[in-house]
Design goal:
With 206 residues, the chain is mostly helical. It has a single domain, classed as HflD-like (YcfC-like, Orthogonal Bundle), CATH 1.10.3890.10. Helix 5 crosses helix 9. It is globular.
């Protein structure tokens, strides 16, 4: 993979987390494979490649790619407004998190505990999702800038759905961090749209 494609995998995963959070908020449903891919990405500490973070391939990131493509094409008919809003907010929140060494350390030790829960219960068990959601609440949710998730109150008010949404947003932050570490910048979304779209179309074909 080229460095730009690696960046797009990570950025696609930010959008994937946002798409899934939006799906739960509106329908209360999300596929276990997609959820598993995102939760798993939180626990990969020493990946050999960017794809390793997401289970070795990008099959579960395709909805994220589509949402990213719709944002870059600027086609009002196809634009997924809420996922775009959540994704940009996640990128902004990750920049704030980067200045908080204390919080990063706490997240690291809490993720170690979550890893032990995963070994005991499995990745998409309610206890693991609740622990990831709780970690988001104790860290990212304390920033002044908050992500307001819109959807159907019947689904949003269910504690398990709320925990799923928070854990997906946490995974989105992890991917935003990876994107930046790989050299991603917000200005690319404005000034390099054509180049990004060309590579994204290529990724969608493979």
């Amino acid at each position: 993979m080229t460095p730009l494609q690696e960046q797009l995998v990570a950025l696609g995963a930010v959008f994937e987390a946002a798409v899934l959070a939006d799906k739960i908020a509106r329908t209360g449903q999300v596929s276990e494979a997609s959820m598993s891919c995102m939760l798993g990405s939180l626990l990969v500490r020493d990946p050999k490649s960017t794809l390793d973070v997401y289970g070795g391939d990008d099959l579960n990131l395709r909805d994220g790619y589509r949402a990213l493509i719709s944002s870059l094409e600027r086609n009002p008919a196809a634009l997924q407004r809420e996922p775009l809003r959540y994704s940009l907010a996640l990128i902004g929140l990750e920049r704030q998190l980067d200045k908080r060494d204390d919080m990063l350390q706490m997240m690291g030790s809490r993720l170690d505990q979550i890893q032990q829960q995963v070994e005991h219960f499995g990745l998409v068990h309610d206890n693991v999702i609740a622990a990831c959601g709780g970690l988001y609440q104790d860290t990212i949710s304390t920033f002044r800038q908050r992500i307001q998730v819109h959807g159907d109150m019947r689904f949003l008010q269910q504690p398990n759905n709320a925990a799923k949404i928070r854990s997906l947003l946490l995974a989105g932050i992890r991917s935003a961090r990876l994107w930046r570490q790989l050299g991603g910048h917000r200005w690319q979304l404005v000034f390099s749209r054509g180049k990004l779209l060309k590579e994204l179309y290529e990724l969608m074909r493979t």
